[in-house]
Request: fold
Amino acid sequence: MSQAANTFWVNRSRFSSKENQIAKREVRFRHLIDGLVLMIILAATATCVSVYLRTRAELGAATARHTAAADQVEELRLQAERLEREVGRMRSDARMIESFARHDLGFVRSGEVVIKIESNQKATATTVVSKRTEAHSLTPQTAESYTEASH
Reply:
């Protein structure tokens, strides 16, 4: 039984020369089949390892993209909350409304003098000096038109 399972050992003394040649061919054929089966197993193993590694790399890339998207969503959620708070303050806080009108829309109060200061980057900064503090209404004049109208 052990000789049937092991193709390497062949009892040569039992066979005649013709039978010995046939037995050698059978042994070579079995070795060829064994080598072919081994090559197929190795090729299948290499293919499986390659697919596994590629899939693992794709999973890592997808996980990184998911994490980046989740971070971006969280950042946008915080920004939306901040903007909602700012909108709420702009609807109710008079100082916030005035600040928005002055800085973003360029409004000035009547009786204020606008002084332009040139900076090194050639951007203009505007300074408003109030002559009268009792004027509380803002007029929709930009700093450029106000300075031109006052001259």
